[in-house]
Amino acid sequence: MTSSHRSTPLPAAGVAVEHDAANSRFRAVVDGLQSVADYRLDGNVLRLTHTEVPAAQEGRGIASALVREALAFAAHQGFKVEPRCSFARGYMQRHPETRGLLA
């Protein structure tokens, strides 16, 4: 696993997501506020455990950008995904193309 993974900004939400592997999270800082998607890696299963976006920034696509990046990382690494967080679970239900990643 790489120690860092950085994506380009996502055009729809304008959100740059950074993989903070040392803290097992994907993070984005928008307007000075941090949003995160935490995970736990167990073998080849990436368990998405928590997604948090400041209330003032909800509805801007930030959580979706975080989960999308986490799923892209998992796919690239050959990991399966267990969405324990309700947001991640809902995202995967709304995006059938991600279901092949389910653990």
Task: Summarize the structure in words.
- This protein is 24% helix and 33% strand.
- It has helices at 62-77, 86-94; strands at residues 4-6, 18-20, 25-30, 33-42, 45-52, 80-83.
- It is globular.
- The chain has a six-stranded mixed beta sheet with strand order 1-2-3-4-5-6.
- By secondary structure, it is of the alpha+beta class.
- A hairpin with a 2-residue loop joins strand 4 and strand 5.
- The two termini are 18 Å apart.
- The protein has one domain (4-101): Gcn5-related N-acetyltransferase (GNAT) (Aminopeptidase), CATH 3.40.630.30.
Please describe the topology of this protein:
Elements: E1 4-6, E2 18-20, E3 25-30, E4 33-42, E5 45-52, H1 62-77, E6 80-83, H2 86-94
Parallel strand pairs: 5-6
Antiparallel strand pairs: 1-2, 2-3, 3-4, 4-5
Q: Could you give the order of the helices and strands?
A: EEEEEHEH
CATH homologous superfamily (4th level) name: Gcn5-related N-acetyltransferase (GNAT)
**CATH-assigned fold name:** Aminopeptidase
Number of helices, where a helix is a run of at least 4 consecutive DSSP H or I residues: 2
- How helix-rich are the residues, as a percent range? 10-25%
- The stretches of 5 or more residues where confidence is low (pLDDT under 50) are 1-12
Distance between the termini: 18 Å
Which strand order spans the largest sheet, edge to edge or round the barrel?
A: 1-2-3-4-5-6
